[in-house]
Amino acid sequence: TLPFDIDGAVIKVNDFEKRRILGSTAKFPKWAIAFKYPPEEKETKLLSIEVNVGRTGVLTPTAVFSPVLIAGSTVSRATLHNEDFIKEKGICIGDTIIIRKAGDVIPEVVSVKEHIPDAVPYRMPEICPSCGAKAVREDGEAAIRCNNPDCPAQLLRMLIHFCSRDAMDIEGLGDALLNKLVEQNMIKTAADIYSLDFGKIAEMDKMGKKSAENLKKGH
């Protein structure tokens, strides 16, 4: 037994002369082969399902389950993708579920092992959990969407993406601060980021003058 986790092994021919005879392709030796172990799977209890709204309005369900140690880390959440995925797996709150890490990285729900007595199949909400607008599933789509252009959750997710390294790369405007600015109606569109009142930001909880000045420089 090794004192650390591994996810596979490379099996090699243990003879240099035979290696020479077998040779190699342009990319790989013919005398070695990689063997990937099956991913570790664990049982846990599904406690609840949270639904979050993305920047495009898509409602995404997330499984919240009893924390479990798997593949070297403790996890307690995994995406359930969409309504069709939940129906296909027959997922109900309270179920005993099987989870694993896809690629030994991303937690995923593999299957339901056992339902609780009188289990009720989960249904996606018919209204947006953020703004209360009607949630709609268009024909031919798996996603359920909130089509309200003024939805606070969509605005927040859009702003987080806008400020990220993959977009405008604005330093200092993290998720928590953006959430506060949206809640206090200091940002209603991406354009508002460039006309922020840094005096008001300095007065916000856990900010201060120096943090506001650093944010201003990050612009």
From TrEMBL:
One of its GO terms (molecular function) is DNA ligase (NAD+) activity. Its cofactor is Mg(2+). Its EC number is 6.5.1.2. The keyword Zinc applies. Residues 1-167 form the NAD-dependent DNA ligase N-terminal domain. SMART domains: LIGANc (SM00532). InterPro entries: DNA_ligase_CS (IPR033136), DNAligase_adenylation (IPR013839), DNAligase_N (IPR013840), NA-bd_OB-fold (IPR012340), NAD_DNA_ligase_OB (IPR004150), RuvA_2-like (IPR010994), Znf_DNAligase_C4 (IPR004149). The keyword Calcium does not apply. Transmembrane segments: none annotated. Keywords: DNA damage, DNA repair, DNA replication, Ligase, Magnesium, Metal-binding, NAD, Zinc. It catalyses: NAD(+) + (deoxyribonucleotide)n-3'-hydroxyl + 5'-phospho-(deoxyribonucleotide)m = (deoxyribonucleotide)n+m + AMP + beta-nicotinamide D-nucleotide. Pfam families: DNA_ligase_aden (PF01653), DNA_ligase_ZBD (PF03119), OB_DNA_ligase (PF03120). Coiled coil: none annotated. GO terms for biological process: DNA repair; DNA replication. DNA ligase that catalyzes the formation of phosphodiester linkages between 5'-phosphoryl and 3'-hydroxyl groups in double-stranded DNA using NAD as a coenzyme and as the energy source for the reaction. It is essential for DNA replication and repair of damaged DNA. This is DNA ligase (NAD(+)). It comes from human gut metagenome. The lineage of its organism: unclassified sequences, metagenomes, organismal metagenomes.
